[in-house]
Amino acid sequence: MTRRPYRLLRVLSSALAAGTLLTTAACSDDGGTDGSRVSGVTASQAAGQRQTPSPTATLTTDRARTALVTEADVEDGWTQVKDTEAENWHDSLLIGRVDVSDFLTAKAQAADCRRLLDSLFDDDLLGRPSGASELRGFEQGDSRLLYQVASYERTDPQDSLNWMANLPEKCDQFTVTDGGEQRTVQVVETSLPGVGDAREGLRVTVKGTTGGTEATLTLDVAAVRVGDDAITVTAGGLDGDENDSVEQAVRLGTQRLEDVQAGKTPAPFPGDLE
After folding, report:
1. Does the pLDDT value for residue 131 go beyond 80?
2. Where does the UniProt annotation place the signal sequence (predicted)?
3. What is the pTM of this model?
């Protein structure tokens, strides 16, 4: 990763009353349950026995776009935004530094936490896609949901899923400082439907002040591997819990990707989930 003195993080919440936004704090180089462990293959299990994907259609840009979820696939209340808007949700910015003193093995652990925050900003939670990649954004009140489908045929998304699986332990709680203001970041594991070949879910919470105003930003994050392709979902804002929306996007989005891989056209409307 290119070293920078400061990193900026994508904003996933709307303006506070004071006119500023709280977003997950990015890091500098000073930073030297029962969740997804349910049915199916988790990242830690798959690390030892990687499944060989069945022959599938190459994920071209058009196919990746077809595999994206629609308004019909996410909970009522979400409204799709223009692609250019979703790609520029980092217009309002926040700068921060990770407090290395929070970690027992400072450089190694801080680097993992920095990577998490940087990857949320760069939309590359599983690393830079080696093939086609498409994303779509949705809004609901003060919350936003970003959904991505990408191909990793020349890399290994499983490595990144294994990395994600360790974050609740390595980055369970740490401090980010910006302009004298401190914020506490917490990372915990969340549950996901047992879909795909492997999956990991996280909740990232940032509590503190911005511009002198107290606020809490909650991001629910999920990644699912299907062969050498994967979907990632990030949803949240100042309103808090968006885990239900993430679970639904994961469930229906994985099915859409599998349909596309099999050369099928995904159903225009989701089936009954009950």
Report:
1. yes
2. 1-28
3. 0.77
